[in-house]
Amino acid sequence: MDVSTVKALTFDVFGTVVDWRSTIISEGVELRKAKGINVDWALFADAWRAEYEPSMNLVRRGGLPWRNIDALHRMILERLLIEFKIEGLSEAEKDDLNRVWHRLRPWPDVIGGLKRMRKRFIVAALSNGNIALLVNMAKHAGLPWDCVLSSELAKHYKPDPEVYQTAADLLGLRPDQVMMVAAHKHDLRGAQAVGFKTAFVPRPTEFGPHRTPDLTPDPSFDLVARDLKDLADKLGV
């Protein structure tokens, strides 16, 4: 495709840029060592993530007043602590566990790919994660964003159109000058609906070895890449 009109690349974060599952499992193992909490941390990570979309949908449909992702993650965590029979954590320890989402590790291709694309394009997070979470994650992981954009700014969650339109407005660009990069088709389709260009970067192992996401690209997507380094190649940087 002709990318001459594209000025900015906006990136989904959870799953596309960072590997949430392995990070949560790793920190859970450390918590088991420190506190003797013997649970299946892979199952715990999957259960936490499984409630992510339903909790946002409650907000999107008016079932809950606006809450940012930190608050929604904490709401889910409280239920999971009961479900997995995890006891003995102080409020500070629960808060620290909830902030594991601030410490997620990037996929191996991410830092190099972003640095290359940043030479030519504005590169920005565009995530359902709240601003504090995304800033802390960027500092922790070394993510070289030009700016951090969040659904929190629009008080909507992706794929609501307000999120993408707000991002374009804040960047001072037309929607067709922005390309959304994501591993999730519903996110890209939401971006397309307001006029963004789209790049599909599937992450086959996002959900672990026993669940394979839908990796078949939609022919309407402008670009399909194996990872962010391959996307940089396709964008000519």
How are the elements arranged and paired?
Blueprint (H helix, E strand, L loop, with lengths): L7 E4 L6 E2 H16 L5 H10 L1 H9 L8 H15 L7 H8 L6 E2 L3 H9 L3 E6 L3 H11 L5 E4 L10 H11 L6 E5 L2 H9 L3 E4 L22 E2 L3 H7 L3
Parallel strand pairs: 1-4, 1-6, 4-5, 6-7, 7-8
Antiparallel strand pairs: 2-3
Helix pairs in contact: 1-2, 6-10
Features:
8 strands; globular; alpha/beta; Rossmann fold; two-stranded antiparallel ribbon; six-stranded parallel sheet; DNA polymerase, domain 1
Plain-language structure description:
This protein is of the alpha/beta class and 237 residues long. It folds into two domains: 8-19 and 105-234, HAD superfamily/HAD-like (Rossmann fold, 3-Layer(aba) Sandwich); 20-102, Putative phosphatase, domain 2 (DNA polymerase, domain 1), CATH 1.10.150.240. It has helices at 20-35, 41-50, 52-60, 69-83, 91-98, 110-118, 131-141, 161-171, 185-193, 228-234, and strands spanning 8-11, 18-19, 105-106, 122-127, 147-150, 178-182, 197-200, 223-224. The strands form two sheets. A six-stranded parallel β-sheet has the order 5-4-1-6-7-8. The chain has a two-stranded antiparallel ribbon with strand order 2-3. Helix 7 (131-141) links the parallel strand 4 (122-127) and strand 5. Helix 1 packs across helix 2 and helix 6 packs parallel to helix 10 (228-234). 38% of the residues are buried.
